[in-house]
Amino acid sequence: MKKIILIAVILSLTFTTGCWDMKEINERIFPYSVGLDIVDKKDFKKGRYEITFTYPNINALGKQAIQEDIVYLASIRGNNMFEGASNVSDRLQKPMFLRDLKVVVIPESLARDKNLIKEIIDGLSRDYIVNKVINFVVVKTTAKDFMQTVSKSKKQTEIEGLLYGLLRNEQGSTKFINSTLNSFVKDMYSCGATLVPVARREGEDIIVDSNAVFKDYELIGYLNQEDNRNIGLLTNKTKDLSINTEYEGADLALRTPRPRLKKQLIKSEKNLKIRYSIELRGQMEEYILGRGDQLDNKEKVNDMEKTLEKDLKKSIEKTIEKLQKDLNTDTIGVAEHLYKFNPKIWEEIEDDFDDIFPHIDIDLDINITIRRRGLTK
Amino acid sequence: MKNDLKISHIQLRALIISAVIGVGIISLPNDLANILEKDGWILIVLSALLIFPIIFMINHIFKINPGKDYFQIGEETLGKVIFTICKLLFLAYLIVYCSYEVAILSQLIKAFLLHITPVEIIIFLFVLTSVYISSMEIDIIARAGYFIYPIILIFAGIFFFISLPTADFSNVLPAFQSNFKNIPRGIVSTFFSFTGFEVLLFALPYVEDKKKALKSSMIALGIITFIYLLMFFTTLTQFYLKQLQGQNFSLVMIAKTVDLPGYFLQNLDGVVMAIWILVVFATFAPAFFGAGKILSNTFRTKSHKYFLLGLVPVIYYLALVPKDYIELQRDMLKILNILSFLSIVVIPFLIFIVGIIKRRIKA
């Protein structure tokens, strides 16, 4: 009797393999990126957005690839991203799984609509599956157009996708500051504003070299690459920086890894004054042949440092003025610094920080040292 | 009381840690942040300080009644009738506790791992698996706890290390800016994070080295406090305060925001959930065992095995009673808080006080 029961149990196991949720990885589609274009209001019935997904073509992977197109594109109408992912099943043979979604492409028209951005951020944060370090990028054309270009780009890679690789910024570009869902939400809470990189097409290349400024979940302006470099310095996000200036008719270039930043509130009676101390130590990258003796002269070297400091300071001051006067957005962490280190002052000004920020005195103290001169004199 | 069961004091320590750290750990940081903002750690320390005398009291009860188990002591000091009521309360607490744990667990497993599998199946399988371990005696459960103990330490360690590269330590500031009037309310809710140490009531009589038992329990309490503090500060360095306050399960959120260089380490929620199931299992088993033991003692049976099987449908049904997350995370928790306070603070306190008075009268 025991044996019969045992055999029955073992046999029953063969019928109960797997479960409701067993899904092989190749039975799912993992989109890299999603783009959301707002459609005309008259045409709202099928959905508010035209949603575009790009996903890797598994058949183009590996040495014995049977297809050429690395990336496929699927476009569908829907009211939100999740509806889009389920609606798209009418043209794809496998279910879409948003777990490895890496990039959200936001066209300018959508970025200017505060409520829609708030909806998207909420949906992405709330979802159990979506990655919380998903990258954002703003484009000035429609998302669909842009994504078509990306998918055809020759630099496209199978594994991570070109756009994600660019935005992740392992290459250490100082021309843009990347933005993830987590950093977007964090910045909105801490400073009320954040930066999202802007991508554009140039010939066959995809270029990311500026940032869009979001204030209170709404796009209000753009910053160029110089501004981004300066903001990177002021928020301590820069890992490696190259600066140069003209010195006595020749180009003087300096490479400074790991800049150091210190913020300090100095005067707190009448007008708030915050000092940003930036310390850069680096090695000379290029000067000009035949002036080796200049580099042996301590005074000359100090003068070079001063010139570099002056140049950088001028540039940063311009950026700060832009932020304070034109955009009135605190993307350089003033509010966060006050909240963390001077909570009593912050409590007083918290409610009308927007009116106070343009008048805050931001003092720059830049200290550049040429530590190494290179292999030749 | 069986005399052949033996638990070493190190096993006791592991048993307490694995029984206390359970379902609540993944939402503890955001609960604390909502009550006391960045000073939430004060609540952890205060709760631990409040648990300290309770453990001391329980230890003392067994010290003055050597060779007896909790039921014998309770009956002798409080009398049969009163103690039966106490036992019923305790039983109710353990059953609701088990149901609550398994209800939260099943909801999260469904959301993160098994999207199509019905919640009923998840609950049923989890409880049924636990029947096996809980039908053993306390020494086996202690050994299982000893086995899960390093997993809990690794679980906490993983969180700490994966979040180090992106940690912003200035997030801990500003300190002492919160409203301290919220402390009493906060302690009520953090107290629940420390429940589970009532396993002492079943385990203490069997500890080999009675002298080291108290010290061991205190070390366990210290380790638990440390792990809770570590988890709280880890989440605090990762998120801005308002962000943290808006979350439901902060630790899972950390696992989902991990982005270490090299693409491979992303979306660790699956791994975290898998380890967390083990952690919950180790919390569930002693409580389930306790419920079985109380029933077997009440009905004077030799083994508690069959009562466990009988409890399966009860826990299954209770876990499915809350219809939505509000009923589950607010209403059920309220009932649980009251029951836990009564059965692990008030009842041992009664036994302790009455015991002392009776001794005085005798003397």
UniProtKB/TrEMBL annotation, chain A:
GO CC annotations on file: membrane
Domain named Spore germination GerAC-like C-terminal: residues: 212-374
Spore germination protein N-terminal domain sequence ranges: 21-198
Gene3D superfamilies: Nutrient germinant receptor protein C, domain 3 (3.30.300.210)
Coiled coil regions in record: none
Protein keywords: Germination, Lipoprotein, Membrane, Palmitate, Signal
Membrane topology classification: Lipid-anchor
Gene Ontology terms: biological process: spore germination
Location relative to the cell: Membrane
Annotated Pfam families: Spore_GerAC, Spore_GerAC_N
Family of the protein in this entry: Belongs to the GerABKC lipoprotein family.
Classification via NCBIfam families: spore_ger_x_C
Name of this chain's protein: Spore germination protein B3
Organism expressing this protein natively: Tissierella creatinophila DSM 6911
From TrEMBL, chain B:
A GO term from the CC aspect: membrane
The keyword Manganese appears for this protein: no
Protein name per Swiss-Prot or TrEMBL: Spore germination protein YndE
Record organism: Tissierella creatinophila DSM 6911
Similarity-based family: Belongs to the amino acid-polyamine-organocation (APC) superfamily. Spore germination protein (SGP) (TC 2.A.3.9) family.
GO biological process: spore germination
Pfam family, one: Spore_permease
Major subcellular location class: membrane
PANTHER family: SPORE GERMINATION PROTEIN A2
